[in-house]
Amino acid sequence: MRIHKLKIHNFRVIKDADLTFEDQVICIIGKNGHGKSSLIEAIAWALYGNQASRTSKDEIKSTFADKTDTCEVSVSFSINSENYRVVRRLSGKSDKAEVELYRGDSSESVGVNETKNYVGNLLGLDWKGFLSSFLARQSELSALSDLPPSKRKDHISGMLGIEKLDKAIIKIKGENSALSKNINYLTNMLGQKSTVEEIINDLQKQFL
After folding, report:
1. Among 4, 32, 70, 127, which is least packed by CB within 10 angstroms?
2. How far is CA 11 from CA 6, 67, 151, in A?
3. Under 8 Å CB-to-CB from 65, ≥6 apart: which residues?
4. How far apart are CA 45 and CA 52, in angstroms?
5. CA 137 – CA 158 distance, rounded (Å)
6. CA-CA distance, 146 to 158, in Å (whole number)?
């Protein structure tokens, strides 16, 4: 996944932002309280909704926005040469959640639940996996730099969810081993059945 454009309106501390990423973004640098985390969370919120934000829905819209103002984030990105754009907003006094995802110029998904599932399948990540692998927070990077080399591998594995993958692989191997034993057992049983059938046929020929 490569992000190309990010547009923000009334999201947290950001009133308006229109960013174009011409090249791969390595990091976002700025003073404390100037919106670095809000930029990251805006991307995650646009893709995954309120569950990817660190606060409740009531705190997503900027405090300086009027009750009738719209909070909106648009993220344009590409995957395997396919272009996508997701637009999420909170509209009206009730902050009604609206979201739509486009592939090229065609609408692919409309609605909170449908788009959440679509994004999850498209990226192969839930919101936790996305925040810990694609977008790394400053606190996670700081924790990584403070760790001794022997423990950094475990920390990175936790960030990327590799431990869960390793456990799943071990479980699958165990299940495959048990399945292989069952197959061998059934094969032996079938072999014995053939032998018994041959003996019965011989006996029938002798006495019939």
Report:
1. 32
2. 12, 13, 37
3. 10, 15, 71
4. 6
5. 14
6. 16
